[in-house]
């Protein structure tokens, strides 16, 4: 069983930055693909970014490409999402997810992730 705990959300003005963190329990964190997803009120959960296993390849949603950066620190069992140039459309509950299947394939579907955190709220004011 893996537990994921997100932190770092908050209220920020448009153009500002936030860094989200996701701390994972478990000894096999380094073998998990990790992803960030978000869900705004009345909308479906959507893919934001992922970092793969074992090569840490990354992929981003078009809406955040060039503004967001996903990274991981396996020694700290933590994955990060650096978010720059935030705009009100980025307002959502952000979730961290882990995929335990050992595959180097990039996965953007939330259905293929096994473990989820409770989410951290990001609100961007105009």
Topology summary:
Elements: E1 4-7, E2 10-13, E3 18-24, E4 33-39, E5 46-51, E6 58-60, E7 68-73, E8 78-83, E9 92-99, E10 115-116, E11 120-125
Parallel strand pairs: 2-11
Antiparallel strand pairs: 1-3, 3-8, 4-5, 4-9, 5-6, 7-8, 9-10, 9-11
User: What ranges have pLDDT less than 50 throughout 5 or more consecutive residues?
Assistant: none
Rg, Cα atoms, Å: 13 Å
**Termini separation:** 40 Å
Question: In which range does the helix fraction lie?
Answer: under 10%
Shape: globular
Largest sheet: 7 strands, mixed
Question: What is the number of helical segments per DSSP (H or I, 4+ residues)?
Answer: 0
Structural class: mainly beta
Topology, number of strands = 11
Description:
The structure is a single chain. The chain is built from no helices and eleven strands. The protein is mainly beta and 126 residues long. Strand 7 (68-73) and strand 8 (78-83) form a beta hairpin. It starts with a strand and ends with a strand.
Keywords for this entry:
126 residues; mainly beta
Offer a quick outline of the entry.
The protein has 126 residues and is an all-beta fold.
